[in-house]
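Entry 14. Structure prediction run on the chain below.
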Amino acid sequence: MYPVKLGFEGAKERINKLLENNHYAESLVTSVFTAEKTVRRTLRQLIVSSGFKSTIANKIISRLSGIYQLVEAWEIYDPQHRKLTKIVKSNDIEIIKLAAQKRNKLIHGEQVFKLELCKEETLKVIRALDNIKNCFDEEYGYSGWTNISTRKISMLHKDPKIKETIKI
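Output returned:
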């Protein structure tokens, strides 16, 4: 996993080094990982921003595996309850999803792809990743590549719509 301190440009540099050294399959795996990590970190911060404690946000995020589940959960935590495809170009999300399918087939040994295709897919993912990161920075002021703020005390239930009973 790339640490936040590596930074977005550092993560992209690692992908580009793989491309330069003709490690195209590895660059595909790494680029999809980086895209998913960007979405995952941003969603985690949205969960914290919505009032959940950081420990609870970690539990929620740990149950979301892969880009499909991250995209599905987005509207629950977006401050305006928008789908991710309303925030970023749906084409960028589709590029990541298709590349993730190829990545999964590579990793699980289900299918082998021509190296030139892996290179092309990696370049598409990098462009989509740039677009997604820029969109997150513009929309939320956070895109997963800086230190996150934490919440130790829940801010949920500050305006309850049901009667709360406290039992001792």
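The mean pLDDT is 92.
Filed with the rest of this week's runs.
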